[in-house]
Amino acid sequence: MLEHVVNGLVLGGTYALVAMGLTIQYGIARIMNLSFGDTIIAACFATYVLFSAFSISPLLALLILVPAGYGFSLVIYKVIMKPLVARAPDEGALEVDSILVTFGLLFVLQGVLLTLFGGGYNSYSFLNTPVNLLGTVVAGNRLLALVLSLLIGAVLVLTLYRTRWGMVLRAVALAPQSAPLFGIDTDRAARTAFAIGGAMAATGGVVVSMFQTFTATAGVVFTMKALIVVILGGKGSVPGAIVAGLLLGLVETFVAAYIDPGLTLAAVYTVFLLLLLVRPNGIFGKA
Amino acid sequence: MTMKTSFAFALAGLALVVLALAPLVLPDYWTGVLLGMTGYVTLATAWALFSGPTRYVSLATVAFFGVGAYTVAVLNEVMPYPLVLLCAAGIGMTMALLVGLSTLRLAGVYFVIFTFGLAELVRQTVSWWEVNVTYTMGRYVFLPFEGRHIYWQLLVLAAVTLLISWAIGRSRIGLALKALGDDETVAAHAGVDVTRIKLLLFVISATIITLVGAIQAPRWTYIEPSIVFNPTVSFMTLIMALLGGAMRLWGPLVGAVPLFLLFEWLSVSFPDHFSIILGLLFILIVFVMPNGVLAKFDDLRKGNRA
Amino acid sequence: MSAQLKITNLHKRFGGLVAVKDVSFNLHPGEVVGLLGPNGSGKTTVMNMISGALTCDAGRVNVNGVDLTRMKPHRVAKHGVARTFQLVRPLPTLSVAENVLLSLAFGRKRHWGREARDLVEEKLAFVGLAGRGDEQVGNLTYIDQKRMEMARALASEPSLLLLDEWLAGLNPSELRIGIDLVQHLQGQGMTVLLVEHIMEAVRALCSRCIVMSAGEVIAEGPSAEVLDQPVVIKAYLGDDHA
């Protein structure tokens, strides 16, 4: 029982982490990014390569891949998203355009990964030592994943809520039309937010790869779960993403443990639909 | 019926006859190409039926397509073929009703997200059912159909779909659809039951898509969930409808024909890089023509007149 | 004479804010009544609860003896209530005629085909847009968009018309046209509830006024009397002017 709670929190922690990235992209940059999960998977593979070919520990890999994720997303935003933002007459049009264009990007990323690595399951063994925690045994890599998720999540929350720069980003999320009136460069804010989202995805990828097997085609499932967490938490709400992410991780782990591992996605969907019917704007969304 | 409409109908009828006779003279390979093309014309037209006017982008095409194909795989040895098709349509319809009832009342973005994962959900659920309940993984379809038989069935379905699309475009429902695509609030205050109309169109569209999957099932003699729930189907349908213009009757067809040929060529020439090329092409399409080729033509025409 | 519109104890809150508090009033058949009040006084919220755009927390809305409380907008429309919007909302992908046809096809009766086309032309002629059905709504001038919206509202063949600041934003000569149009409707026996800020229009059109402030009805009666009451002037202009 306790073991499942810990595992659920580990999984939920990573969901919360990646969902925070997605919610920042969607809430601030107004881009609904369907290729988000494939960015995560790309980071998984990169970690895998760094670890198995160059014996670089995943912790060190973070130092390489997080900036890489930031840079990659920045370029994507400048090349692909910026023209769409510029031409969109309203938020709805941008939403449709960004959904379509990132849907295309999803296939490109997935295609590249398939070409490079094939369609099989991949994993590597890192810190697979059992650790005693509160009377149950947990794998060391899982524990590390949880600690990393909490740490990075906390840094992000502090940045958003305690710095001037975070306030600028939140202002753009709340009132994109009025923010420029206060001298805020919304374009820069959007660009930065999208890139931070990419950095979070890379972080998520590194963390996930430490304790889970992954395939080149698994991006869709990650995007889906991150999206569900974002919606459940309320669009653009970071605390909401954390709560919803942990909830989803727990639900999934318990369903896998007590019902059937094959039904986790179905369970996630059920939670999603039930919550949407009760609270259409998410747990932390405004009514 | 005006002269122009009668003429268009006569022309469409003639084209249909020519297309129906084509397999009698064409080699098998080209019959296969025509078959695939007709399948995608039907998919794209059915997709546009709902998503065009409402602007609810559905990414769930393959969820319904796959359900249709899989239903045939499960039932083809149990009951006569027409009954199997009927069952497939019924299952697709029920699934569309459930999905529509739970998501169409919400904002469009929830619908998109839900449909995005629907295919994966259905695939995993079907796999789980097969492994845990029926203890089978993969099924065989034994139906005495050759390529041209499947093609003829698809041709009928395509014609019926276009006819439905035409009839809706001229009806009160078509007007309501255009109106609610513009402004749901205004449409509702004018007396349009917005949710019901969206649901109706979604169910019609999904049922046709399910039937396309069901009719095409005998083409694979061996079927398993990962084959029939291939996400590129949703993707290609979407591109075709968007390229041709999802708001127009002939739009999806105009998009589907050249793109299908292009995809066919690409998948033969670059089998390993197909999905990369597909993705890049799609990004390009969104950039160049967000409203589709036909809309571009209309713009050009208007530009000339002015 | 029985009431055409009967509102009893209508109540609405948004979070902690009480937007409409215990509002009751009646409209008799053929009456044109002004619903006045400063910005934020709850007029539009009341309109929205009558037309079904918002659901009330408590109270009842009754039109022609039918209880419309908490009914969806499309059903309210079918029971003979039509509305215009504070900011004009034409449907841009439809032509002028199709905008009007929509209400004919989905209003009280389900008109379609040739008969509906004739009715569209009739409604357009009534508002002064005769022969302009094929135009794109985007090409219409502001007053013509307002006319089109009026035609669209009338096309559902309502017995009660809700005009939400329909005359706002018009220049003096356009205002004259607008007032004439409403008077014409009045002559045909239409019951109208008018949310309006332009006093000239209110005095010209409304036999009776209901004044709201901070979500409550503070005055009600014949226009000439109500508009001069100190409590009304105070609500609009503040204490200094009372």
UniProtKB/TrEMBL annotation, chain A:
It comes from Tritonibacter horizontis. Belongs to the binding-protein-dependent transport system permease family. LivHM subfamily. The keyword Calcium does not apply. The gene is livH_7. The keyword Transmembrane applies. It comes from the Bacteria. One of its GO terms (molecular function) is transmembrane transporter activity. GO terms for cellular component: plasma membrane. It holds the Pfam family BPD_transp_2. The chain crosses the membrane at residues 6-24, 60-80, 100-121, 141-161, 192-211, 265-284. It is found in: Cell membrane. GO terms for biological process: amino acid transport. InterPro entries: ABC_transp_permease (IPR001851), BCAA_transport_permease (IPR052157). It is a multi-pass membrane protein. This is High-affinity branched-chain amino acid transport system permease protein LivH. Keywords: Amino-acid transport, Cell membrane, Membrane, Transmembrane, Transmembrane helix, Transport.
UniProtKB/TrEMBL annotation, chain B:
Pfam families: BPD_transp_2. CDD domains: TM_PBP1_LivM_like. GO terms for molecular function: branched-chain amino acid transmembrane transporter activity. The keyword Ribonucleoprotein does not apply. It comes from the Bacteria. It is found in: Cell membrane. This is Leucine/isoleucine/valine transporter permease subunit. It comes from Tritonibacter horizontis. The keyword Zinc-finger does not apply. Keywords: Cell membrane, Membrane, Transmembrane, Transmembrane helix. One of its GO terms (cellular component) is plasma membrane. The chain crosses the membrane at residues 30-50, 57-75, 81-101, 108-129, 149-168, 199-217, 223-243, 250-268, 274-295.
From TrEMBL, chain C:
GO terms for biological process: D-alanine transmembrane transport; L-alanine transport; L-isoleucine import across plasma membrane; L-valine import across plasma membrane. It holds the Pfam family BCA_ABC_TP_C. The keyword Ligase does not apply. SUPFAM superfamilies: P-loop containing nucleoside triphosphate hydrolases. Gene3D superfamilies: P-loop containing nucleotide triphosphate hydrolases. PANTHER family: AMINO ACID ABC TRANSPORTER ATP-BINDING PROTEIN, CONSERVED COMPONENT OF ABC TRANSPORTER FOR NATURAL AMINO ACIDS-RELATED. This is Lipopolysaccharide export system ATP-binding protein LptB. Its EC number is 3.6.3.-. One of its GO terms (cellular component) is plasma membrane. Keywords: ATP-binding, Hydrolase, Nucleotide-binding, Transport. One of its GO terms (molecular function) is L-isoleucine transmembrane transporter activity. It comes from Tritonibacter horizontis. The gene is lptB_7. Residues 5-239 form the ABC transporter domain. The keyword Ribosomal protein does not apply.
